[in-house]
Amino acid sequence: VQLVESGGGSVQAGGSLRLACAASGHTISRNCMGWFRQGPGKEREGVAVIYTGVGNTYYTDFVTGRFTISRDSAKNTVYLQMNSLKSDDTAVYYCALRTGAGSRCTFDEFVYNVWGQGTQVTVS
Asked: pLDDT band for position 80 (50/70/90)?
């Protein structure tokens, strides 16, 4: 099972980016998937998670109203649309998958057993 993130880059404050996480080797039909990030000198933190079965989504407070997580089952891909970006959003963003069954998705990174390599987002 492999996750490959794309879409990172540099953007000015107030701008937008869309990250994509393409899964291979596993069909993300009824799984928890999440986006996490690690900023400079900070611990990794959860950003948004989605249950790919029915599309339930959960966000942390600092991105609510600005970020949107979604999935495209046909493409086996999860997205993170990021709007109104701030300098504090600068980080490496990681996609994560829990291959086990269950619809109760959380920000506990230890329940996710497959991780992407990360993609850098820089907001200036």
From this structure: very high
